[in-house]
Amino acid sequence: MNPDDFMYAVETRKSVDEATVSVLSAVEKAGWTVFGVYDVAERLAAKGFQQKPLKIIEICSGKYGNEFLNRNRFVSLCMPCKINVFEKDGKTVIAGMNPAMVSEFFPEISKEKAEPAAKELRQMVDAAK
Known about the structure:
The protein is of the alpha+beta class. Helices cover about 45% and strands about 25% of the residues.
């Protein structure tokens, strides 16, 4: 398995804060729910550590979440999905986890059942770019 199997990432010309707002808008337009936004650099700064900007946005689709949980409650360990916005090499990156990966760990969820969720997440990342 390589990182591209687990994630989908794009670069954007937007700042981390602008890209975060764009992600939130794309998630809302897609009909998914935002569970939380975490400012990791801010949290680490409170503990005395310096870190470049990093926002973790937790999201979920009720449709897919419900279906996957009904097949195996342990899939909750992979929930909610995440889209991260961060700075890397002077550029802003928007990266989302691939929800289809749950099929690798939970055979009750076929790749065919999980791929539509992955497609929607990729579309949200692209829309936020």
